[in-house]
Every structure is written in structure tokens, then in C-alpha cells.
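Pilot study result, target chain (753 residues):
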Amino acid sequence: MLAIWKLRASRRSSLDRQLTWSLTKLANLLIANWPSGRPGNWAAGQLGGQSELEALLRCLHRHSSMTANGEPVANSDESSLNTLPLPDIRTSPMPNGNGSHKSSTVIESQPKRRVSIIADAPMIGGASGGAAGYDNLAYEQNPRRKISQTSTHSHTEIGPARRRSILKEPSLHTNDNESDRGSTHSYENYRQSALDVLNAKYQGHQHQPPQSQDGANYVEDSWIYTFCLKCRGEEPSESWEPSFWQKVFPYPLCPTFRTFSRLIVLILIGLLLWIVAFVIIGDTAAPGGQLFSLVVLTVAANFGGYIISLTTLPRLIGMLLVGILFQNVGWVDLDGDFSKVTGHLRKFALTIILTRAGLEMEPEAFKKVYKTILKLGIVPWIVEAAVMTVMSHYLLDLPWMWGCLLGSIIAAISPAVVVPCLFRLRTKGYGVVKGIPTLVVAVAGVDDALSVAIFGIVSTIMFSDKGLGYQIAQAPVCILGGLAFGVIWGSIARIFPEKGDAYVVPLRTLMLFAGNLVAIYGSEELGFEGLGPLGVVFSSFVSNLFWCKDGWEVDDNPVSTAFEIFWMIFEPILFGLTGATIKINELDSHTVSIGAGCIFAGVIIRIFITAGIAVGDRLNTKEKFFVGLSWMAKATVQAALGPVALKNLGSDASAEERKWAEIVQTVCVFSIVLTAPLGAILISITGTRMLKKTKQPQILTGWRRSHRPSIRDISIIDEEEEREDPETPMDKETDDNTQSNAHLTNLSYTASK
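Predicted structure:
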């Protein structure tokens, strides 16, 4: 038994301190109770002499002075071991009559601790000891929480952390209930374990450990593995799954259990909502009805956008193609009375587009370079709109007013295409020094606001039967009225709700959205359609300006994140509906070819005009041409406004007017198909060649557009709320104990008589 004890004591990596000292006590008892009557002499004889026995005990002490990772503590060197007194086993007391005993091994190197208040957990039981290292098991260690009144370990060393949203249920993984115990692990552990199983199966020796790493990662090196990785992202937290999941659905060929369960939940929610809608609405929500067709189109468009996004092209291309497919196969019919519903959906989408354009303008950058932003946003827009107006008049036989209407739509820029491409360049350090990404995004917002405002003015003049004075008053009233609405509503959004309100984010989001919807619908009712869009952009910009003064950041604005989520819902609806307006068998090849020529002519001229007027903006020639190329993509405004002219025509409209409206709609749709993918590709290719790259890597805390946002990105509670120390009021006993233990970092045990 002593030999076994000697062998186990030498393996310090597998024993913790508590077990070691328990074995020491057991050895003392065995030696003290041996029947020979000479415990010390017998033990020394069996172990090779007193010197070897003392060496064994020194080895035990050296092990007990180690940390859980096998590293010696600061005070445990060889010299200190030689001076430490050892427990004398020859004088160990005999057990008393009732079988109890008193060990001579005690811990005297530390003051007696009353409560667990030290900053670091004692390393007992290894790194996986969990809560076993604390005297108080109910105490949850939190590095961002002050330990006591006098402790220096607080969240101020790390910085205030963003509080978890109350919308998100905290992830609690407990293993107390054995029946609920599954496999809970991180993403990397999940990935590696699943890959090991797949590689072993592929090699045909699953139960044999691989002899070398060369040539063993067949699955990870295959093309299907690379493709499947594009279909999934890293999980933000640990995931739970049944123990059989990896065997039945191996990684990465199959989704994780979290993804599968999320899909099941969405299907169930959709099914239940459809049942409720069918009971309330009736046949239009039944299979074959128009509402049912719209829902199917939206889901399919979202899936089509996801497939296209795997190629790094904009998602809206896939959504648009799905809409065209559904219309020409005959799977959707949204004409008739249901066109009113689609018209309102377009207005909602337009409101979200313009609100996001205003929120993405950085107030500080706008103040510094507002002349450059206005110059690059207005002059190239006027040139492209004029080119489109003239060419459509002479080549497509459109009247001048219809040509102006088409030019105001086509000249708009699409932030949905530009921003993701610029993000990828910015993360690599391209153009960051001169602020080119910020400049391009700011000009895109101004450009969209100008397009929608001019479209509203021209549309009101075209479809209104009022006098000449009313038509002349359109431009000044729309501009001044839009600016006034923006200032008033933006100021109200700053004061209400109060910035310290716990629900300030959702209240600000809903208030801004509701006010902007009123601006869109109200301006239409008043007969000044250009007022509403301009008011939406300007109110969003003014609100963002005031919120930034209160401490929010442009790149990490929770209200902007909320509108990104709204856009995720309306994006497939908008582009699916836009694609469904195209009937290939009714297209005129002459209109398509001439329209494509007009689009590219306007884009090319705009690029050269942009490079020509960017004088004195500290941009070299390559950077000027890159800025012009980045503004060639068309998408969002064209999808929202393209079919509007045809919808505004009354039942008494002539066949010629309908033809003009169809030309406008067709050219708008094809401008998306032609310029959106080409613009994304050119931005990605030319950006690395035309922009200067900074040497330092860019760590972007903002610009969340690298991923699709979710509801987890919104914090309902104020992020900068002051954290109060949970130990107030100060307890004198705890404070005294903290002072006495302030010099301790880890628990260390020493042996004495």
C-alpha cells in the first residue's frame, strides 16, 4: 500500500492538493497504527531508510506547492523546500478510543479566511473545477463586477460593457439534471470533433487513431466542405445538441441543431400565422390566393438572395430573378385589387430606405466636408439625370416630362450594393486614410434624397390637374417644407423619449418610423409628393445628429440596426414584387437594347464628371475614378419608384401613356439587373488597385454591415448605465477581511508540524 501511495504521489499532474494531503494523513495513520510497535523504524526500513522517507515527503510538499497547471508558485523554490519542517511520522498520535484522530498536518501559512472575496478563483481541481474553487458556491465570478468596496478589480479596467438586451434569454447550461445532459460545446470544438469523425470515416478506419496529420484532412480540403462553410456562420455562443446529432447529421454537411431548431420555429410560426390569416381574411389567404402567393414569393425571394450571396454578389439580384421567374412561370398574380396592397408595401419599403440613408450620414464628417459631399452628390446626379432625359426623349420617344421622371429615378445610387462592398475594402485598410468609404456612403444618402424629392415633384406635376401656379410652387414648397419637417421632427425625437429611459431604443425607433410614414402619406394627400421623402431623410439626419451628441455612435446606432432588420423583412418583398412586374414575352427588344445603352451612357458620363469636379478634395486620379465607379450601381430607389408611374395611371389613361409607363418600369428593372452585379464586382476589383492601403490593420468596432443583423444587435436597455457596486452599503467585517487578504493572489498550501 505504501508503494502504491509512493507511485501515485510522484504523479503530481493527476492529483490535486486536497487529494495529496488526504493521502498524507492516511499514510500517517497507517504508519502510526502498524502492529510492530516501531512505526518509524519499520517505515524507514521498508522505504530504504529515513533519508528516502524524508525525500518522499519533500516530493509531496513540492507537489502541493504547485498550481493546478503544474507551475510552481512564487515562493516554492528548492531552497525553501530544504528549510521547511516535515511532519514527524514517528511521533504521530495514536487514535483515541472512539475511532477519531487528530492529524498533525495543518495549514499555517495563511490567515484564516472568513469569506471568499479574492479576485481570482483558487485553482483547486484543475481548470475544469468550475465553481468548486469557491468557498461560497452561490457566488458567481464576474470580471466586470467590483469584488468589494476597496477592490481594484472592477469593470473600469476593462471598460463599460454593453448590457445584454432583455429580448434575449440568457444562455444557461447546467448539468445538474442528468436527463437533460447533452453535448454542450463551443463552435470550434464542434467543428473539430465532427471533422475528425468524417475524416476517419472517409479513410475507412474510424476506430483507428490517425498516425500522421499529412493527408488526413480529406473532408476539410474538399470543395464541398468549402461550399458548405459559406452556408454557415460562427455561432455567437455555446450550442446544445443531442448526443446523436453529429452521428446522424455530420458537420459541416448538415446544419447544426441550433440552426435546425430555429428553422422549425420559423416554420411553426409561419404556419400558425397563416391559419389565423386564413380564418380572418378568407380565400385570398388560401393556397392559390393573392396573399398566399405574395408570402410564397417573399420566402422564395429570400432564399434566392441567400443563394446569390454565396457568390459575394448582392442578395437583391437573386430576389429580383426569383420575382421574374415566378411571374413568367405563372406562379404569382398580383394584379387587380391586390395592387393597392403592393403599392402600400412599396411605400413602407421606400420609407425604410430613406430613413436608413439619413441615419448613415455621419454628422461630424458632413460638417467638415459638406461642400464636397454636396458637390459630388448634386452635380453628377444632375448630369446623369439630364443625359437620361435627353437620350430617352430622342431614342425611346418619351415626352420630356416622362424623360425627366425616368432620369430622376435612374440617377439614384443604391446603398444596398455600395455599403457591403466598401466594408470589405475598409476592413483591409483600403481608402481609410482619406475617408473614402465615409464619403461614398454620405453622398449616396444625399443622392437618394434628391432623386425621390425630384421624382415626387415631377410626378405631382404630371398627374395633377391643378393650375400653373400650383405646379410652379411644387419645388420651393417641397424643399422648404421637407427641411422644416426634418428639423421639427428630429428635435422632437431628441427630447421624447428621455435619453435615460430604459426603453429608449424601441421608443425612438417606432417614433421615427411612424413620423416618417406620416410624412410620406401626408405629403401625398396634400399634393406635394416631393415634400415627404425629403422630410424623411432630413428628419433621420437631424435625429442622428442629436443622438450622437448624447453619446451614440453613427457606426453603432441601435436605431439604425433596427431599421436594418426592417429592411431585411421588406427587401425580399420589394425586389420580389419588382421582378414580378416583368413579363418576358411582352418585352420589346428595341426598348431593352436602347434602354441598356442609355443606362451605360449615363453611368460612363457620370464617372468622368465625378473625376473632373473632384478638384481640391485631396484625391488623386485613381481615387477620383474609383469614387465615380462606386456610384454606378442601381437598385433600391429604382425598385421602389419604377412601377409607381404605371400604378398612378387611372382607368381613363390612354394606351400611349401606358406604353410610356411600361417603358419607365422596364428600364428601371433592367438598370438593376445590369448595374448592381457589375457595380459590386468593379468596386471589389478596382478598390484594391486604385485605393491606398494602410499598413495598420483596421479594427472596426462599427460598420455592422459585415453580417446580417439580428434582434440580438439591439440593446433595449441603456448601454452606458452606471453599474452600482452590489456590496453597498459597506460591511465593516468584509472590508477588514478584504484589506487583510489584499496581497493574496492564489491559494498555496505548505506543510508544518
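One observation from the pilot: The CA atoms of residues 62 and 80 lie 10 Å apart. A full batch analysis is planned for the follow-on phase.
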